[in-house]
Specification:
The chain is of the alpha/beta class. Helices cover 47% and strands 16% of the residues.
Length: 437
């Protein structure tokens, strides 16, 4: 393996993380203690917002009326794709019941959580697609109450975002962002409906708030800056690679973009043309910083080595521009979402293809996938063991319990053996019914 371009390590990152953690902790504690009053304080401080937080039907309709029909059509198109894929995911999860032994019924039920909180960022960009990704997926899972929120800019949230939330099926829309929005949804402030799970991308403060609240509520993924990688061989087009890397670098100055290649000349060509492609961008300063500080190009001789390198990085978005796409699909294990072939760009997944764009970062793809219907659902198991089956199961349960030193567990089984099979002689007399009558 050889680095054709290395990322510049940022020693200030750890210090910045500590500052964010300290700030978020203070905010969450204050909101926990003071409730809605603290939320109003932070909304005034960060967004200069003193209006109602719950978007009224009249105001929502006014926002929707501002959205051009062509934009509505595109949002509707994206919603159909995401809903179709999420519906297919839901249908792949099944409840079932089996009889493992005579008189023993075991089963599972698939049930949705009761309330989901969906965060839609609203900083530099209007993330209408994010509203669809989170809200529509929760809706497909059958979540009965969905709260969506996004930070207001000026007099309200972005109209296209409001329309996307509406189409996707949000029950309540909050004009609110940042840490106080996350805490609001988790606590059920202003709605009376505490969220069971919080989902959606956001800045470092939002991500940290979700991390700190994890445990009291569920979350989708531990999120960091957007990551994108491309695997390419000698058949790939360097211009296509550069365009796609730059497209993802615009997420932010701390968004890594990586190239793993088996062709040295290709890697060197991409390095050569990246500054030219970046210079043509309207936000060239953002893209340039992301490429300069976090971009890297790695060369390795074989595709097997490249696959191993890619799995070590466990990238959020992974594109393949190489021959034998089935081989790559079969041999890659760690990624948030995979884009096979030159025709598939990350933008498709980010906006409209149907797979979810809320994905794991910081190597979390080693153990977790991205947001999906199952994140909003619980697999609940049940069992029914009749009296006759207790002869085998209580006997085994009692013996295993005593092997482990758990006498109370053993006695629960012993009791059933004596109760259901009084005609048999047992070598235990732990409980005597007459003593309790």
């Amino acid at each position: 393996m050889e680095y054709l371009k290395k990322a510049i390590s940022d020693e200030a990152v750890a210090d910045e993380d500590e500052k964010i953690q300290a700030s978020v902790k203070v905010m969450l504690n204050r909101i926990h203690d003071e409730g809605e009053g603290a939320v109003r304080f932070y909304a005034k401080q960060f967004d200069n917002w003193e209006n109602d937080f719950v978007l009224s039907e009249e105001k929502k309709q006014s926002l929707i009326d501002q959205v051009p029909q062509s934009v509505k059509d595109d949002i509707d198109f994206a919603h159909r794709q995401v809903k179709r894929f999420a519906d297919a995911q839901r249908n792949s999860l099944v409840s079932f019941e089996i009889e493992t032994e005579e008189g023993v019924r075991l089963g599972q039920k698939i049930l949705p959580v009761q309330c989901a909180g969906c965060y839609v960022p609203g900083g530099r960009y209007a993330h209408a697609a994010s509203a669809i990704m989170s809200v529509a997926t929760a809706k497909a899972a059958g979540v009965p109450f969905i709260v969506a929120c996004s930070p207001p800019r000026g007099d309200s949230i972005n109209p296209a975002v409001a329309y996307a939330m509406h189409v996707a099926g949000a029950d309540v829309i909050l004009e609110m962002g940042g840490v106080h929005a996350i805490a609001t949804m988790a606590s059920g402030l202003f709605t009376g409906k505490p969220a069971d799970i919080l989902v959606g991308p956001g800045n470092a403060y939002v991500a940290e708030a979700k991390r700190m609240l994890f445990g009291s509520v569920g979350i989708d993924v531990f999120a960091g800056p957007t990551e994108s990688a491309i695997i390419a061989d000698e058949t790939a087009d360097p211009m296509t690679i550069a365009v796609d890397l730059v497209s993802q670098a615009e997420h932010g100055t701390n968004s890594p973009v990586w190239l793993f290649t088996t062709n040295r000349e290709l890697g060197e060509k991409v390095i050569e043309i990246m500054p030219l492609v970046i210079a043509d961008m309207p936000n060239a300063d953002v893209c340039e910083a992301a490429w300069r500080d976090h971009g890297l190009v790695i060369f390795a001789e074989t595709r097997e080595e490249i696959a191993k390198i890619s799995d070590e990085y466990a990238c959020e978005h992974l594109q393949i521009m190489a021959e034998d796409l089935p081989w790559w699909n079969d041999n890659l294990n760690n990624y948030g979402s995979l884009f096979l072939g030159e025709g598939s760009t990350v933008t498709h997944g980010d906006k409209c293809s149907g797979t979810n764009h809320i994905l794991p970062t910081k190597k979390a793809a080693r153990y977790s996938g991205g947001l999906n219907v199952q994140k909003f659902m619980k697999v609940l198991t049940y069992q029914e063991i009749d009296e006759n089956a207790n002869l085998a199961f209580s006997a085994a349960g009692s013996r295993i319990s005593r092997t482990e030193g758990m006498e109370g567990h053993a006695r629960a089984c012993d009791w059933r053996l004596r109760k259901f099979f009084p005609e048999k002689e047992w070598d235990f007399t732990v409980y005597d019914q007459k003593r309790y009558d």
